[in-house]
Amino acid sequence: MSARILDIGCGRHKWPGSVGLDIVPLEGVDVVHDLNQFPYPFPDDSFDRIRVIHVIEHIQSIPRTMEEIHRIARHGAHVDIETPHYTDASSWQDPSHLWHLNTRSFDFFLASHASNYYSKARFEVEWSYVMLLKLYKWLGIEFLVNLENRLPSCRFLRKFWEQYLCFVVRGKVMSFRLRAIKR
């Protein structure tokens, strides 16, 4: 049996083989639903993979949305999220963006997070990646900022960049791979 995939906010570019969910009835959208209305029209534990690509920054409540994603994800399901880094101009130029996020925004849903009592949704961050401007990629700064994916002991590099350097060495797009934890 093949994995069941949900593409939330798919628009015109639905991931091949997935169920497309969007607020706008475009060609390729399988289920038309307001993403700010809960519950989504799927039963619990429906999907093995959920894609949320350039959508989360448009939704009214990230905690509520993540709880809904957790509800419809199977245990161990991968949740792929992509969104602009808050220092990128695209984060601020689109008037429909409600949230401006950083690389630690989804740590809120970790079992070990100090404020995890605000939400029952639990995820493990398998990896996160920040794209920087090409100049900084060529200079190797993007490699250093993302080194924690290979060496968890290097987490301080991203923290240092985000706290002290990100307004000079700006982020562009962030990608996350979360894993739903249900047991």
Q: Any overview of this molecule?
A:
With about 180 residues, the protein is of the alpha/beta class. It has one domain (about 5-130, about 175-180): 3-Layer(aba) Sandwich (Rossmann fold), CATH 3.40.50.150. Helices cover about 20% and strands about 25% of the residues. It is built from five helices and seven strands; from the N terminus they run E-E-E-E-H-E-H-E-H-H-H-E. It has helices spanning about 60-70, 90-95, 135-140, 140-145, 155-165; strands at about 5-10, 20, 30, 45-55, 75-85, 125-130, 170-180. The protein has a seven-stranded mixed β-sheet with strand order 3-2-1-4-5-7-6. The model has no long low-confidence stretch (mean pLDDT about 95).
What are the defining features of this structure?
alpha/beta; Rossmann fold
Give a short synopsis of this structure.
The protein has five helices and seven strands; from the N terminus they run E-E-E-E-H-E-H-E-H-H-H-E.
